[in-house]
Design a protein that fits this description.
- The complex is a heterodimer.
- Chain A is mainly alpha-helical.
- Chain A is built from 24 helices and six strands.
- Chain A has four domains: 99 residues, no CATH class; 119 residues, no CATH class; 97 residues, no CATH class; 88 residues, no CATH class.
- In chain A, a hairpin with a 4-residue loop joins strand 1 and strand 2.
- By secondary structure, chain B is of the alpha/beta class.
- Chain B has one domain: Alkaline Phosphatase, subunit A (3-Layer(aba) Sandwich).
- Chain B is built from eleven helices and eleven strands.
- Classes of the chains: A mainly alpha, B alpha/beta.
- Chains A and B meet through helix 10, helix 11, helix 18, helix 19 and helix 22 of A and helix 5 and helix 7 of B.
């Protein structure tokens, strides 16, 4: 695969950051500016120091939010709100690396839904597992997710026994998690049934919240697979050894080169573009798949090859992904520096921002912890729409939400997210000059430069008076000298509201 | 929403045919009037039962009850609990379907048995795709793989959509999708002919009118213009949709309280859109949760549990919807029809559930239905194993073709382009 050797300018840097982080903050930009592509990639792909996020739960007795301790199980039930918060917090406060985007990738790949277990404990165990292998080894993750408690409960692995095989997981293991349904995947219905037998014997103990192997309900007959798997036979094993049959099953499946291709297509769609034609298949997917399968499914080398490839920086592809609701939400929270309000006196105060952000993204069609089907969100698999799917569901919600977070007369006190636009503008290099700061803002927030007409319109809004007369530059100059002057600050706030209600609903803000 | 194909077609057609474009549209316009007039106001409401409904516990074949008793011991509905209609035709309804049984007695409900297709696919996603696109990969044009049968049909009625639509202010879009219905089913070759939303509050604050950015040919640039066109397109229909709802309040008292039965909420909205004369010919709604691999029935009582709750919601929603349409004076104009990606296995599993199977029973409702009972009851093997499945009697494409012909009055040659691989048989579904 050809490595990118063209000029390394802001265009390429911002493209890389938009695809690996969620949005770009001014600090991110300053941090990476001046580094080479290889230096940037070394930092972006190093997830080793990412902390496991704290998990919070709501203590009903004291009505406070507390950190959940994994070493005791007194609290059987972590509230879903806590799950939402515990997933959104690390995204909002993400490290400068690809980790959070990969957590979401695995969540969309190895889907479970929290509604199945109704338990925050299982849901958080599941997310912890995704984090453990976030840029690690795919095969290892595939093996461990197979007997993860939440997954067993979600796809009925806990109901699969020698006298009563349940083939739900066995099917999805092949169809969705490893081989897919492409032309190179030719497993049979008999393979689904044979795999189901290998997978028998697992149960979930709700006292200890742990998955456990019970040899008594494991099918100890030999399992014969089709010619697609070269008539492989997995010898049935009695006793505790029976659980090692799964290792053999995962090995057998992963020996199919189609697994590597299937996963590389998914990564390509996640990071580059949803359209895969014969050219992409030959020039990108094939060489990537060779890299992936060689050191036995290590994820990091594949990401490195993809994100440093000549193809990735093709200028035609910049801005070519439509943001999902979570993309939109997390990028916006980061760009406008919305953090937890630690000073909020209410017990649940500090959690309000991530909670409402998670709930709002859910209303726009992407609820964390709960993809609509076992295949994930349709925007990542439904041909030919792919990410355009978000336009049919999420496009309305975004505009409503932007209106709520920028309005000056807030009516619903529960919806606590509010953009501090004055601080945002103050942090830019020249807030006194509206032509300059608007250009700087769109450079940072938009993946593609807007046309002349929208820029002129934003400029016009900056200069349009409410109560105080004067251009933006004049009013700002007065405001800076007397920030306590209510009339002036209200004027600035109103103009900023008008500008950002437009700027954030333009189509350019919906792509990355 | 593929404007490129559309523009390509629009610019080449008149050249190929050597006719000015207005002459073509005039001819097809006359043909349109002639063929469609008596069918113009008819509405089709599709209900997607997502997950694969267990047909054998929904519409229960009585003549083979003993086989069911043997192979689905842990989930079978006790014989004395099955709701058997007066004219039985050999089957009965799940006890949660009392409302539907009544519609059946009132000659407002038909069951099409044994609906499926050769070499069935057991994947939810392929199965759903096949039922939405009617593309099974045996001689259809590859265009059909990515377009829905509803979208292709609507393209025959809304030629050149979206160019020039809506024709009159207040007209509805060709199709309305409510809830989580895939746009695939309403996608035509040139454009998506449906507009999807969850509820009216989606429209409360649409994006402002964008000053036009010049078209940029990169992928991102095309997304930007697609977004602009989509918002413009939706905006054109919002006044019609909101005023239709404003014109017609729901009249039935049979709806449950909001948010209790999500399907009923969707159908309630559809009823007021139909009642308020939105004039959209197709509505699609969705009820999810039918993937009952485990705990399909309650531990102590097989007439209760997950599947029973789903069917009870289904029945309640349809009965209230029909009642509402009757009170609005629209009952005769509307045909309802369910579809599901597949049925489930004949034998149950030990988790009190059923795995993926093949054949479904399609439920239709409306006052113009001719028969209660269409197609043959499924024939079960004497001793089905855990892997045995039913074979279909009626191809799902024949059902679609029969609806296009009998309900919408579409001529055969058009049906053949929309559903090229549908068997020639047409079901006699409607009162002439």
């Amino acid at each position: 695969m050809k490595k990118y050797e063209g000029p390394w300018t802001d265009t390429q840097l911002k493209h890389l950051l938009r695809r690996t982080l969620f949005g770009i903050t001014p600090e991110d930009y300053r941090f990476f500016r001046g580094k080479t592509m290889d230096q940037c990639l070394d930092i972006l792909l190093d997830t080793s120091a990412n902390p496991f996020p704290p998990v919070y739960f709501e203590d009903q007795r004291t009505e406070t939010i507390k950190e959940y301790k994994w070493d005791h199980h007194n609290e059987k039930f972590i509230m879903f709100t806590a799950v939402l918060i515990s997933c959104f917090m690390p995204m909002m406060h993400q490290q400068r690396n690809i980790g959070e985007r990969m957590v979401l990738f695995w969540h969309n790949h190895f889907v479970t839904r929290y509604q199945t277990t109704q338990s925050g404990v299982y849901t958080m165990q599941y997310f912890m597992l995704l984090r453990k292998h976030v840029t690690g080894n795919f095969k290892q993750l595939l093996r461990e997710i197979t007997t993860n408690a939440q997954m067993l409960l979600f796809l009925d692995g806990n109901k699969n026994s020698k006298n009563a095989p349940n083939e739900n997981y066995a099917r999805e293991l092949q169809e969705l998690f490893s081989l897919g349904k492409g032309p190179g995947s030719r497993y049979t219905e008999a393979d689904v049934q044979a795999a189901a037998k290998v997978l028998t014997g697992w149960i979930v103990d709700h006292e200890s919240f742990a998955a456990r192997f019970d040899p008594d309900i494991h099918d100890i007959t030999d399992k014969t697979f089709s010619s697609f798997y070269h008539d492989h036979v997995i010898k049935g094993k009695a006793g505790p050894e029976g659980q090692t049959e799964i290792d053999e099953l995962v090995d057998m499946i992963c020996r199919q080169p189609e697994v590597s291709r299937f996963m590389c297509r998914k990564l390509y769609r996640w990071f580059v573009n949803s359209n895969i034609d014969a050219q992409v298949e030959k020039k990108i997917i094939s060489p990537l798949a060779d890299i992936f399968i060689r050191p036995d499914y290590e994820v990091k080398p594949v990401l490195h090859a993809l994100l440093s490839s000549d193809f990735f920086y093709n200028s035609d592809l910049i801005g070519g992904i439509i943001k999902s609701p979570i993309d939109f939400m997390i990028a916006l929270l980061r760009e406008f520096d919305l953090k937890n309000d630690e000073t909020d006196p209410e017990p649940t105060g500090p959690m309000k921002v991530p909670f409402w952000a998670a709930v709002s993204a859910g209303r726009m069609g992407q609820e964390i912890g709960s993809p609509p089907t076992v295949a994930g969100w349709p925007a990542y698999y439904e041909d030919p729409l792919f990410d355009k799917e978000w336009l049919t569901s999420g496009i309305f919600g975004q505009a409503v939400w932007i209106d709520k977070v920028t309005t000056l007369d807030r009516t619903n006190p529960e919806e606590t997210i509010h953009l501090d636009l004055i601080s945002f503008v103050k942090a830019l290099s020249n807030p006194a000059d509206s032509i300059q700061w608007l250009a700087e803002t769109t450079d940072l927030l938009y993946a593609l430069p807007p046309g002349e007409a929208p820029m002129k319109y934003l400029q016009k809004l900056a200069d349009t008076s409410h109560e105080c007369k004067g251009s933006w530059n004049e009013v700002w100059a007065k405001y800076i000298l007397a920030p306590e002057n209510e009339a002036l600050s209200t004027e600035i706030k109103k103009r900023l509201r008008d500008i950002f209600q437009n700027l954030l609903t333009y189509p350019e803000y919906k792509i990355r | 929403m593929n404007r490129r194909t559309f523009l390509k077609n629009a610019s080449t057609l008149p050249l190929i045919w050597g006719l000015p474009s207005f002459a073509i549209s005039h001819a097809t316009f006359l043909e349109h009037i002639a063929l469609q007039a008596p069918y113009q106001d008819r509405v089709l409401v599709l209900i997607q039962l997502e997950g694969g409904n267990d047909t054998l516990n929904t519409i229960i074949p009585l003549h083979q009850y003993s086989i069911l008793q043997n192979v689905r011991k842990n989930i079978v509905i006790p014989e004395n609990k099955i709701l058997v209609p007066e004219t039985t035709n050999g089957f009965g309804f799940h006890p949660s379907l009392a409302g539907l049984r009544q519609l059946y007695e009132d000659k407002q409900l038909s069951v099409v048995h044994g609906v499926g297709y050769p070499d069935p696919d057991f994947s939810h996603f392929k199965g759903t795709d096949i039922k939405m696109t009617a593309y099974v990969g045996t001689g259809e044009s590859s265009d059909h793989c990515l377009t829905g049968w509803v979208g292709r049909y609507l393209e025959t009625r809304y030629e050149d959509y979206p160019m020039g639509f809506p024709k009159n202010p207040g007209d509805g879009p060709p199709a309305v999708r409510i809830g989580k219905v895939s746009p695939k089913i309403t996608s035509g070759i040139n454009a998506d002919l449906g507009i999807g939303f969850n509820n009216l509050s989606d429209f409360e604050n649409l994006a402002p009118d964008f000053p036009n950015s010049p078209a940029v040919s990169t992928l991102g640039g095309r997304h930007v213009s697609d977004i602009m066109s989509l918002v413009k397109q939706v905006k054109l229909y919002v006044p019609g949709i909101t005023s239709a709802v404003g014109r017609q309040k729901n009249l039935s008292k049979l709806y449950p309280a909001p948010k209790k039965n999500l399907l009923a909420d969707q159908l309630r909205l559809v009823a007021s859109l139909i009642g308020g004369d939105l004039r959209s010919p197709v509505y699609i709604v969705n009820q999810t949760g039918y993937d009952t691999h485990g705990d399909q029935v309650a531990r102590t009582d097989t007439t209760k549990g997950l599947h029973a709750d789903l069917l009870s919601d289904l029945s309640e929603a349809i009965v209230a919807f029909q009642d509402d349409l009757r009170l609005m004076g629209k009952l005769d104009n509307v045909l309802g029809m369910t579809f599901s990606e597949f049925g489930r296995r004949i034998a149950s599993n030990e988790s009190r559930g059923t795995d993926h199977g093949t054949v479904e029973a399609v439920i239709m409702f409306g006052t113009r239905l001719q028969k209660n009972f269409v197609g043959d009851l499924p024939v079960l093997p004497d001793k089905p194993t855990i892997n045995d499945n039913m074979t279909h009697h009626t191809d799902f494409r024949a059902v679609y073709a029969s609806v296009l012909k009998g309900w919408f009055g579409l001529p055969e040659e058009k049906i053949r382009t929309i559903l090229p691989t549908a068997p020639a048989e047409r079901l006699d579904l409607f009162i002439p």
